[in-house]
Amino acid sequence: MAMIDLTVTPLGTASTSMSEEVAAIWNMLEKYEGKIRYEQTAMSTLMEGDLDDIFAIVKEIHELPFQQGAKRVATNIRIDDRRDGKEQSIQEKLASAKKKMA
């Protein structure tokens, strides 16, 4: 199972606001519920699941701002692809770190 932190930044738009683009991404992700797990944050979207599935979704997400009129889109992807046999969800990673804080 892979985990991705994704940030999409549309450039060349009429506004500095990105809430419409973010809402479009969130609406698009709803159709993948059950196939991947995801969380939205104020600064990025976290996804976990099969890497091939996630890459296909990332491509679709990258295209959304262009469909809304952006002239340029910068997409940043950070991938955590653990293959040592231990699968760990986003929530499990957070719980592990919090446990070590005590």
Automatic annotation (TrEMBL):
Domain Thiamine-binding protein: from-to ranges: 5-97
Gene3D superfamilies: 3.30.70.930
One Pfam family it belongs to: Thiamine_BP
Record-linked NCBIfam families: MTH1187 family thiamine-binding protein (TIGR00106)
Family: Belongs to the UPF0045 family.
Designated name of the protein: MTH1187 family thiamine-binding protein
Organism: Aliibacillus thermotolerans
